[in-house]
Amino acid sequence: MENWILYGKSGNPSFEVTKAWLKNHGIPAEVRSVFRITEQEIENLANISPRGVKGLAFPDAFSFSLINPQRASDQTLIDKIQSNALSDNEVKSLLVENPYLIVSPILTNFETLIIGYQYDVMVNKFRFFKVRDIQQA
């Protein structure tokens, strides 16, 4: 059985829906806070992300401000990341120091990467997923 990890932020609706979807479909996943993500985990995720480490950060300042209105002053960090003003190593360090810049949820087994709540992708990925020893509550 594959070991899935779900990174997220408590209170984030997309994270909570993804967590519930996995539970309701009997798919075991270790839940981890994105605020405790390590540099090595970011590097591993960046290696399987189509856009590299920049793909782990919010795509633009507008979407960041919608999710994090209290962090308006940090919008410039997103602009720096997405404008290629920073090297990959600088972006990685920035994400370790400021994990709130990472889009969540992130669902991975370090071979597959699903960023954000993507219902269709999860349904297709887990269509033939076999779960054993599920006990009903």
From TrEMBL:
InterPro entries according to UniProt: Arsenate_reductase-like, Thioredoxin-like_sf
Alphabetical list of PROSITE patterns matching this protein: ARSC
Family (UniProt): Belongs to the ArsC family.
Protein name stated in the entry: Uncharacterized protein
Provenance organism: Peribacillus glennii
